[in-house]
Amino acid sequence: MSFCHFSGGEVYKDHFKPGMYVCSKCNHPLFSSRSKFAHSSPWPAFTDTITEDSVTRMMESLTAYKVLCGKCGSGLGHEFVNDGPEEGVSRF
């Protein structure tokens, strides 16, 4: 079993310059800076992917999906349903 662990030093959490966030393994486009928002978690937060096939989602619970790169399958984190900046919006 694996668990998320944060040891500090996340460089993109407070990075809000215009651009695109890509997979660190294969450079597949994942998120646009336009969907990024400030959040209390230690990781960057986004409301949406660039395209529907940017990521693959695997249901973990009724409120969370495991998120993988849509091209190479590298683990990216989670999508939390209804935890975005507005009601009814998810947070990646």
Automatic annotation (TrEMBL):
Q: Which species is this record about? A: Sander lucioperca
Any idea what job this protein has?
Answer: Methionine-sulfoxide reductase that specifically reduces methionine (R)-sulfoxide back to methionine. While in many cases, methionine oxidation is the result of random oxidation following oxidative stress, methionine oxidation is also a post-translational modification that takes place on specific residue. Acts as a regulator of actin assembly by reducing methionine (R)-sulfoxide mediated by MICALs (MICAL1, MICAL2 or MICAL3) on actin, thereby promoting filament repolymerization. Plays a role in innate immunity by reducing oxidized actin, leading to actin repolymerization in macrophages.
Q: Name one GO molecular function term.
A: metal ion binding
Protein name (Swiss-Prot/TrEMBL): Methionine sulfoxide reductase B1b
GO cellular component terms attached to this protein's record = cytoskeleton; nucleus
**What keywords tag this UniProt record?**
Cytoplasm, Cytoskeleton, Immunity, Innate immunity, Metal-binding, Nucleus, Oxidoreductase, Selenocysteine, Zinc
- Where, subcellularly, is it found? Cytoplasm, Cytoskeleton; Nucleus
Among InterPro entries, the record links this protein to: Met_Sox_Rdtase_MsrB_dom (IPR002579), MsrB_Met_sulfoxide_reductase (IPR052150), Mss4-like_sf (IPR011057)
